[in-house]
Structures are given as C-alpha cells and as structure tokens.
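re: ur question from the group chat, yeah i did fold both. here u go
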Amino acid sequence: MLKKILIGVATLLLLCMGAIAIFASYLNWSTPENLTKTTYAQLPYLADKPAVKGKVLAIVTSTPSMQVPTKDGFKTKEAGFELTELARAYAVFIANGYDVDVASPLGGAATYVQDEDDMGAYDYAFLNDSQAMNKVRNTLKISNVSVEDYAALYLVGGKGTMFDFRNNTSLQRLISESWSKGAVVSAVCHGPAALLGVELADGSQLLAGKQITGFSNAEELLLIPKAEQVFGSLLEDELRNAGAKVVVGPDYLEQIAIDGRLISGQNPWSVWALADAVVAALGETPAPRELTGEELAVNVMGIYQRQGLEQAVSALQALSADEKTSLARNLIAIHIFVSAKKGQWSEALDLFELLRVASRLADVG
C-alpha cells in the first residue's frame, strides 16, 4: 500500500513539475537591452514635439505610507502615487503639445510607487528625464496654484490619495474653479477620490448624475482584503453614494468613462486611453503611437472578456509579427492567477489557452 501511495505522490509531483515547466515556457523571460536606461530621445513617439498649446496640471498625493492590519497588529506599507500613472499620461500630454506641471496637497517632494513588474520604456524614460523628475521632487502646493494656467487637471492615482484627496478643501476648490472655467477634469484609479464632495458654483455636486469610473471594490479587495479598515471605505461605494453613475469594467483591464469634460480611468491599465481622451476633449487629434506590449495584452484580454476565447484568439492571430513578439505574455499569466484566486477556473483555463497561443505565435513570428 505504501509503495502505491509513494508512486502516486511521485507521479503527481512529476505532473505538477511538468505543468510548471510548460507554463514557464510560455512566458517572456527576455528584457530589452538597456530598458532601464531608456530616454525620451529614443522614443519615436516623443521625437518631434509640437509647439506648446497649453498646460496640464497633474496632481499627486503627499501621503507616503499607510497602516495595514495584520494578525499581529499593523504594518507600514508604502502609499504615494503610482509612477506609471503619471509617467504614461505625461508622455501623451507632452507628445500632443501640452506641458505638464505636477502639484500635491503639501507641495515639495512626492513619494511614488515603482512596481518593477509594470515598468516599461516610457516609465524608465520619465525616471531618466531630469526635468520630469524635478517636477516630482518639487511639486507645487495646490493651494498656491492658479486655475487660469491650465487647460486640464489630471488626478493621478495611488493609495495615498485615499488619505489626502478626500475632503481636501483646497483641492475641491481647485477642481470646482477649473470646471467652472471650462477645463477638462480627469482622474485615474484612486484619483477620483478627489472628486468626492466637489461643489460647483451653482451649488450642485460635480459627481451628481455623472458617469465615472475608478478602482473597483473587486480590484481593491483582491489586493487588500481589509481595505475598508485601511481606508475607512471603498472608493467605488463612495462614488455611488455621491450620486455618480459608476462604470465598472473587468478587473485590472482598460476601462474609461467619458462624461463631457469629466474623464476617468478605472486602473493603471487605463492610463493610455484616458490620456488620449483628455487630448481629444481639448479639441486635438491624439498623436499616433505604437502600442506597448502591455497594451496589446490588455486589448486581447479585453476582447476575451467581451466576446469570448475564439474572438480573442483571432485578435492574437491578426497582430503583426512584431506585435506578436512584443505582446506582454506575462500579464496574461498574472491574470490566470487572478482568475484562479477568485475561483474562476473556467476563465483561468481560457486564459491559459490564450497564453499558449500567444507564445506559439511569438515563436513563429
């Protein structure tokens, strides 16, 4: 009996090891040479900057850390703003002729979160640009900002915003006055927290009856199960309670909401589309840009969520040879684990098939 059990366990282990090996073979293991040293001069999208047409004010949090409950009490975790959410929108605005200033509730140096798994060429180019980083190290204080200087506001996300964007009277005033003068107001991820309680000149609430999106309850609770205890409440719930028409898309995929001059994105993977929408709302045609590997993966998974596996596979097959190679297969792998963690095994298996096909097409070219 013991021999049979040992043989069974050994067989199971071998099968698991084989499955892991197959899974690993589907991933992107190579990193572009000198990726971390990328500069704006190396990015064709930013090679020919147009004449300056106006300015955008990006607003980031001044909260560097937060307390997260554990079984033994609390531990300190980084908060700050999401670097990718600023860096990518910054690139879009600059490429379309809009200078960008950076402000925060307290002014001065702002703390950012840099997730290496999400970093791409545009993010490293931002880090390597002295002018861009100087703006992060010396943010303007929002109470000192003149709304007349800016065609649009961009409220950058990051968990810190849940502590100093909500109920911030200086920020509420800035948003209200900007809206009254006809500026575009945009926000991504946790950034919409700043819109809560914003009262317009006529006494109405900015969010009342407006379409809006932001980091969803599902996305929040998957990452921080005790998020309500950390933040006091969930952003999606607060937006609904404020009378907004909340738009919720699939977890961790692109989703934007456009309601006139109010433009919002659900999460970091919505930044590119949101920034282009801001440019369009300013009356410009967004400059063409080659999609990043991450965007390609997000688009394909979005097609899967809306239309199913067959259409997603067709979308993969329709990509150019370069796109098939650059598509961020690791992001699909992450979504497999997300689906499994949620107990959505059928979806996890579909995404595994999508990953397999993407890997095969990349090898063929």
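okk and heres the other one u asked abt
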Amino acid sequence: MKNIEEFVSSHYPVDDDKLKELLTEYITKFVVPYPTFGPLEEELLQHCLKVGKSIDDLPEDDEIYNKYYSPDISY
C-alpha cells in the first residue's frame, strides 16, 4: 500500500487528499494505473470503484464514461 501511495504522489500532480485516496484505492483494486492522460475527476474514480470496473472496462454506453470520454473531448 505504501508503494502505491508513493506511486500516486509521484505520477499524479494533485494536492487533493480525497483524490489521492481514490487514486490509491483504484490502483489497488484494479491493479492497473489510472490513465495519465485524461480526466482526473473524483466522480469518474468513484463511479469506477462503485461499479467495480476500471475505466478501460466501462461500457461505451456508460453515462459517466461518456461525460468524460466523448468524441468531442480531447486530452
């Protein structure tokens, strides 16, 4: 867990402790890093954790996924 917290601190430039906690939980649960390029949003992280799917595993018709990943948005 300590290594994951260090990874989060070094790879995701956020000062928000809640967001760091969610990133740590996401990486621990899915054993994959959160996408570096893309939305770093609390709502999206919470949704992934709630439904038990990483961002890559969310269906394309998922409402929250489409809010942050649509053809009109580029990162």
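fwiw on the second one: The chain has a mean pLDDT of 88. Residues 17-30 form the longest helix (14 residues). idk if thats what u expected
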